Amino acid sequence: MISRDFILKKTAKLLLHIIFWVIVLFCYSYFFGHNSDNINYVFSFSLFLMPVTIGTTYAVTDILIPKYLLHEKYGLFILYCTYTIIISAFFIVMSFFYGLLFLTGLKIGEMAPMTQSPLFLFIAVYFVVFVASAINLVQHNYTSISANQELKNKVLEAQLKLKEQELHYLKMQIHPHFLFNTLNTMYGFALKKSEETPEMILKLSNLLDYLLYQVDKPFVSLQEEINHIEDYLALEKMRFMNTLDVSMNFDKIAHTIQIAPMLFIPFIENSFKHGQIRNQKLSIIIDLKYRNNKIHFNIKNSILNTSKDNVQGIGLTNIKKRLQLLYKDMHELNISENDDWYHVHLVLKITKPV
User: Fold this and answer.
1) Fewer beta carbons under 10 A from the terminal one: N or C of the chain?
2) Contact predicate 262/318, CB 8 Å
3) CATH number, domain at 242?
């Protein structure tokens, strides 16, 4: 079924063509009527020349340009242009004889001055063909640019959807890992019937609230992320008791600074998972500051020089993918290790405060 929009577009296009040829007819009448008072002769001659002009124009704009010139078939384009010129020239000469034979009865002196030489007829017809061809090429160029831009937008939209799906998949991988660690800690406290269990449940509630309602947002306040880290560390302190030594140095961050959620927690989780007790303590040092539109995050955890455990967990692998997707060319991640410490240094460039 033909849509209403399609019919309107076709009607508008037809009206534009009609208006164009009416303008050409009046231009012909004005041009050929120069230094002539015979209006009927000039109008009849112009009207007779119109089919030649229209046929030649559409042959060039609807056949030669789209089929040969735009497809870079320049040899065929020149060849068929030559044929078109020869055929159109024949009919232009016929128009000259029409004016001479039928409009003036072989009295060339009664012809309008501008129609007495076929040269002026050629100039008039081919000038119209040239103008129409130029308009056609401009229109085609505009259409091509619009189509390319639309295609580019569709490609970007598809890439964005793929990135969003990949980010969602990565988050879904992080969630079970995070919950597993937290629930394990809570289970241990429940077995001991510890008085700290209610406080731990409250901390877990805060973490789950963040996990369920904040993590799906594209960006969260950096201060919220810090609060989330502090709740997580509070739970781990309860679990490790006296065997944990955590040093935290967090700058006071304005709430206008925003980042993607859960960027830092995988590094902290790994520090507990792969960190090792040295001198009866698991030592973890966390430093986070904001300077010159950049977030500097550092975390170190103690290891033993005999350790060969360099396995990167799901969280660390995923965070690298997320950083590449969300902060491509806007982050620096350096991971180093010596005999005593495993060190992660992450720098995020924040384009502008929200």
Assistant:
1) N
2) no
3) 3.30.565.10
